[in-house]
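Structure, all two chains, one model.
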Amino acid sequence: MNKSNTQTLPNEIPQIKSQPIEKVSIIVSRGSLEGVYPGLIMANGARMEGIEATVFFTFFGLEAIINDKMDNLKVATVGNPAMHMPTWLGGLPGISAFATRKMKQQIEELDIPPVREFIEMIHDSGGEIYACKASVDMFGLSKEDFCPQVKDIISVGHFYELSENAQIIFT
Amino acid sequence: MSTATIAHKTIEVDQEGFMKDHTQWNEDIARELAKLEGIDKLTDHHWSVINLMRREYKEKGDGPSIRRLTKESGVPIKELYQLFPKGPAKKAAKIAGIPKPTGCI
């Protein structure tokens, strides 16, 4: 352990000095509206604080950066107890669309941008956006399928390299 | 609460250096605060952001979000981060003499 990062308490127990967060790597793994926003809010929030941010989209999270999908993400109304909606109701036609419309309204009222604009904001504020290679291959996608803000399609190993000294946040 | 003497004026600041009373603010203070933040010269674009911050705070009691900041000032986000490196909303608020914005966006 690096000595400069530790201090010794009066009882001689060494303690790690707390350090401000300087870099975050955020993984977005889900493709529902409520699955995508937390990662985007945290990435943008990091940049606002001057913290470096990398966002890595994997599995269904890719939907948030696919050009012809990202404007149409839906709220999941089935299998989510916090929706306080019976599963049979959540599965009826139109319910997800209704819940999505409601949530989009609330998001807009809070001045939170739609997904595409949010991705642009994060990109323009210096955040880096990547797609997961394994997922891209699995879904049969290529670079042209993604919005222009996506910097590259990278492997997990590359992601860890880019995350050196970063806090990794999985969402 | 602590005080600091900036541009020959004693101002009250919080722990992070944000001014407690925005009415104590003036443009000379802004220039000095900007220097403390590593911004040597405030350009017209800096001022339009700073003035917008103050206007929003007076109207709404909080600094604007980055999204509002870019929309209302017409300064693109990329440039905001160049004008106020390491966090435009926070830095611009500090230089504008208003409290740290509380919004998440």
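The two ends of chain B are 28 Å apart (CA to CA).
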